[in-house]
């Protein structure tokens, strides 16, 4: 029983979808982070920007076609959240703005993003539904199990797509190789016949 609990705990740790990053944002530049996400995935982010006089930092979250999911100007510290509608590549951009009157310095930006089960507020859910702490934990584990099953299903689907692509590529390469061999054989036959007629015309062979 203890072994099963340990294995499940390790799987739960590996399935945690939390990403934290920190970098220095140079004046009048932007930094974008991209990630591919499935549909119907909740994404939350906590950001914090160091203060610099006369400088402002904006952030914008958008998908691959330019639809804005979240945006705010002149940020310092806060949160954002959005739910993906389709499978797509999403990016979060932090943009520095410095007026010409200021020299500008680099600002430290920290971002912690969560997605899926880790992004849900189970404490608020438990309070709203009047659930006991154990029931809240069971609900979280249930959602985590569903997320793991869904991830395995997506991985299996991608593996099938890759296998179909490999089989299709192998078939095309085989057909192209056969076509190339036929072309080479035809060219070699024509060359032999042409040279034979040429040598006969020059009376080098009979």
From TrEMBL:
<keyword id="KW-0732">Signal</keyword>
<dbReference type="Pfam" id="PF01105">
    <property type="entry name" value="EMP24_GP25L"/>
</dbReference>
<feature type="signal peptide">
    <location>
        <begin position="1"/>
        <end position="20"/>
    </location>
</feature>
<feature type="domain" description="GOLD">
    <location>
        <begin position="30"/>
        <end position="140"/>
    </location>
</feature>
<keyword id="KW-0812">Transmembrane</keyword>
<keyword id="KW-0472">Membrane</keyword>
<protein>
    <recommendedName>
        <fullName>GOLD domain-containing protein</fullName>
    </recommendedName>
</protein>
<comment type="similarity">
    <text>Belongs to the EMP24/GP25L family.</text>
</comment>
<dbReference type="InterPro" id="IPR009038">
    <property type="entry name" value="GOLD_dom"/>
</dbReference>
<keyword id="KW-1133">Transmembrane helix</keyword>
<dbReference type="InterPro" id="IPR015720">
    <property type="entry name" value="Emp24-like"/>
</dbReference>
<keyword id="KW-0217">Developmental protein</keyword>
<feature type="transmembrane region" description="Helical">
    <location>
        <begin position="173"/>
        <end position="195"/>
    </location>
</feature>
């Amino acid at each position: 029983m203890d072994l099963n609990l340990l294995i499940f705990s390790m799987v739960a740790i590996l399935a945690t979808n939390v990403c934290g990053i920190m970098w220095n944002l140079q004046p009048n530049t932007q930094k974008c982070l991209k990630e591919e996400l499935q549909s119907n995935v909740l994404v939350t982010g906590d950001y914090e920007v160091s203060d610099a006089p006369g400088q402002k930092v904006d952030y914008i979250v958008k998908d691959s076609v330019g639809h804005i999911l979240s945006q705010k100007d002149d940020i310092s510290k806060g949160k954002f959240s959005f739910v993906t509608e389709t499978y797509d590549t999403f990016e979060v951009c932090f943009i520095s703005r410095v007026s010409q009157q200021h020299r500008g310095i680099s600002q430290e930006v920290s971002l912690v993003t969560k997605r899926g089960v880790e992004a849900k507020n189970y404490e608020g859910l438990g309070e709203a539904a009047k659930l006991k702490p154990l029931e809240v934990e069971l609900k979280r584990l249930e959602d985590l199990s569903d997320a793991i099953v869904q991830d395995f299903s997506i991985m299996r689907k991608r593996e099938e797509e890759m296998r179909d692509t490999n089989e299709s590529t192998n078939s095309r390469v085989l057909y192209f190789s056969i076509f190339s061999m036929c072309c080479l054989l035809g060219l070699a036959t024509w060359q032999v016949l042409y040279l034979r007629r040429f040598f006969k015309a020059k009376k080098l062979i009979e």
